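Hi C.,

You asked whether I'd gotten around to modeling the 509-residue construct. I have! Everything is below, sequence then structure, no commentary in between.
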Amino acid sequence: MPRALISVADKTGVDQIAWALHKAGIEIISTGGTLKSLRDAGIPATPVDEITRFPELFDGRVKTLHPAIHGGIMFRRDLAEHHQQAVQYGIEPIDVLICNLYPFEATINQPGVTDEGAIENIDIGGPAMIRAAAKNHQHVAVVVDPDDYKRVTSIIAEHGIHGLDQQLKRELAARAFEHSAAYDSLIASWMSTDRFPGELTLTGRRLASLRYGENPHQQAAVYEFPGTAGLHGIGGWALRSSGEMSYNNYLDATAAWGAVCEFDSPAAVIVKHSVPCGVAVDTDIVAAFERALAGDPVSAFGGVIALNRPVSEELAIIIARRKYDVLLAPGFDEAASERLEKRKGLRLLDTLGALRPGSQDYRIIPGGILAQTTDLATADVSTWSTVTNREPTADELDQLAFAWSVVKHVKSNAIVLGRENGTVGVCGGQPNRVDSVRMAIERAGDRATGSVLASDAFFPFADGVEEAVRAGVTAIAQPGGSTRDSETIAAANDAGAAMVFTGIRHFRH
């Protein structure tokens, strides 16, 4: 008689697949809480200790780690020598393994969890069985995901255990190794105290397949990191509308969310192609959004909005007048939701309880991964030094702090012109800094007069400063550190402008 071993922490749907196995004439072996659950459902099941002739030991730490179990899973049915040894030692084959692991992720996310509590939820026997069955998948079907129960159940119900063909067994084995690898990766990350460990163990759980990537000919999917149990959607963004998020939507939303998290006062950020085109801070969120939009209304069309205050009906009416792709905000009142959900193509993401930008940043390169700590440096004016004859006024210093908070989110060479806590000209991603200055000034137009300028890195020549002060910029913030700093300082002095050195660079490649 074929046999199946069932041992699951997540008992979702386990009684249905167990009934299907039982009706197909497959003997069921089980352990602990799974055994009780099956028997409570009226499904006959044999305890593991009747197979091993050994009791569970050490508070259940050892129960399936036994030759009668692993031998039944591991022996090759196509080798006579393996059959002879199985008979010699009384080992019966196990043909199906249904197993998933102790809830380590959920455990470490519980408030106040102790190291002891977490460690006791590190599964040992489960991964050992899963890996054994996956290795021997030519002869054993291993199922770790409740989402696969329905398919396996329907095949067994119609064709019996032999209906599980080699292609399906290999697919299930791959899922099993993924499940085990992700589990080990989460444990390693939790245990590690090294920001950059000797072996990087990143893993992700597929949240959704996307229609396509950056372009229609590219395939794409979005994955979430383990350790975010209980959050709604990736990073805690809860999709409140019917439209699906695209690959580019996720990239732009990430850029907008990172920028708006810079501010405590009511703030609005509008992003286009991962670059802020309008940012503003004000006393209320409606005014902040209107001023962010005024920063560059042409580029804002079809962009992504991030707000750090809930959306009221008043603000929803204003937003609904134009086309946007995504709106992130910490809540929407009922009238606002009703109005905005009617906007075709607009995705609403509720960020209430969402994760803030992480401390690690990763980039894929051919054959490897680059890792760095995230640029979380804030605008601390107390550390800045004035290098010109004229010190910035208190208002100029406030505006420089605002512009400096924005410039770190713009692609290098990044230039931000700001006034009255709003951007009036933004440019980045140019091969040289003076072109970025010129383009930011062009976008600002007359608003450049009386504005301040933030540059993510030093000016290699005086030409960028000369262009800025000629357009009416009155104060500049830059890191300093160029061999030609004296020339840029002289250019600012000649125009009566103030300049501060921040001592921090904000490259964003």
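If it helps when you're writing up: The chain has a mean pLDDT of 93.

Thanks,
B.
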